[in-house]
From TrEMBL:
TM region positions: none
Record keywords, A-Z: Dioxygenase, Oxidoreductase
InterPro entries named among the record's database cross-references: Extradiol_RC_dioxygenase, Glyas_Bleomycin-R_OHBP_Dase, Glyas_Fos-R_dOase_dom, VOC_core
One MF term in the entry's GO annotations: dioxygenase activity
Pfam families: Glyoxalase
Key word Oxidoreductase present: yes
Organism phylogeny: Bacteria, Bacillati, Bacillota, Bacilli, Bacillales
Domain (VOC) ranges: 5-131, 156-281
Name by which UniProt lists this protein: Ring-cleaving dioxygenase
Length: 325
């Protein structure tokens, strides 16, 4: 068994409408699924990705309308990376972020790659990372109808950073339980110790976790702009069953197998309290919608379909149909 890389990252927004505007009109990602939180259908769950929502390209958001401010800190997923094809693309993005008055730190370098850290309108901590010299998990393909030129478009998810008070327990779960291996270190100007890099599968930007140890920080208080969980890619359901056996054998409390309709999942928390998900690559987002119309209407898994009228009545209207096709 070997995890194939990052599957998706799920975060929190307070306003679906503003979130949709930022991630589609400004970042140029495609909304591939407009659905609801299956555990609480009163809130939207929006999936932004590449042209068809390939595994490893999904950045998702739960709309929690009363979500307060995030107070960053420990025991958290403290940034999410978005891949672009080249250093040239990063220069394009630096100009585009300036054009939209978006907070960013300017281009820099992490682990031998050019990066551009920035924040969305709610303080979501994001980093654009260049695949100029990347070798490893393949990227996705930007949507041809995106407002961003295809050669500069976002191609998927890059490394996630975990911030924890101590290294050993999280490192053990990543390596001994999940099969990641240590890939190197780089300087962390914000902390006293170097950033630790772990990778899985084919490696590269689509398969890395960066671990930051910050014992001096207080625990993060999540809210709008915080990350809820990170999911890692599993080939299929049969392999996911084996992962459940391993996670249970390690005495890590877990959700058991959960059918999310577009993929199957297993959730558990590592000892520093960060929520991990293992998710299958399929069946995919075209299970209930045609590729050309992904994300235009509210999609519900079969077990919620009979409650559609009630669910839609409790949601604020969100117009997502593509006007310029």
């Amino acid at each position: 068994m070997e995890l194939k890389g990052i599957h998706h990252v799920s975060a929190i927004t307070a306003t679906a409408k503003d979130n949709f505007h930022f991630y589609t009109d400004i970042l140029g990602m495609r909304l591939v699924k407009k659905t609801v939180n299956q555990d609480d259908p009163s809130m939207y769950h929006l999936f932004y990705a590449d042209e068809i929502g390939r595994p490893g390209t999904d950045l998702t958001f739960f709309e929690i309308t009363n979500a307060g401010h995030t107070y960053p800190g420990n025991n958290s997923i403290s940034y999410t990376s978005l891949r672009v094809a080249s250093d040239e693309a990063l220069r394009f993005w630096e100009e585009r972020l300036d054009e939209y008055d978006i907070v960013h730190d300017g281009m820099g370098e992490k682990f031998g790659r050019k990066v551009l850290p920035f924040q969305d309108h709610e303080g979501q901590r994001l980093v654009l990372v260049s695949d100029e010299n990347n070798k490893g998990v393949n990227a996705g393909i930007p949507w041809e109808h995106s407002p961003v030129p295809k050669k500069y478009g976002i191609t998927g998810l890059g490394p996630v950073r975990l911030t924890v008070p101590e290294l050993a327990t999280t490192e053990r779960v990543l390596t001994d339980v999940l099969g990641f291996h240590h890939a190197g270190t780089y300087s962390n100007p914000e902390g006293e110790t170097d950033m630790q890099v772990f990778e899985t599968g084919e490696g590269g930007t689509g398969a890395e976790v960066h671990l930051e140890v910050r014992p001096e920080l207080q625990k993060e208080r999540p809210g709008r702009g915080s990350v809820h969980h990170v999911a890692f890619r599993v080939a299929d359901y049969q392999e996911l069953e084996k992962w459940q056996e391993r996670i249970t054998r390690e005495r890590l409390p877990n959700s058991g197998l959960v059918d999310r309709y577009y993929f199957q999942s297993l959730y558990f928390r590592e000892p520093n309290g960060i929520l991990f998900e293992l998710a299958t690559d399929g069946p995919g987002f075209d299970t209930d919608e045609k590729i050309e119309h992904l994300g235009e209407n509210i999609a519900l898994p079969p077990f919620l379909e009979e409650k559609r009228n009630e669910i839609e009545a409790n949601l604020h209207p969100l117009e997502t149909a593509q006007k310029d096709r």
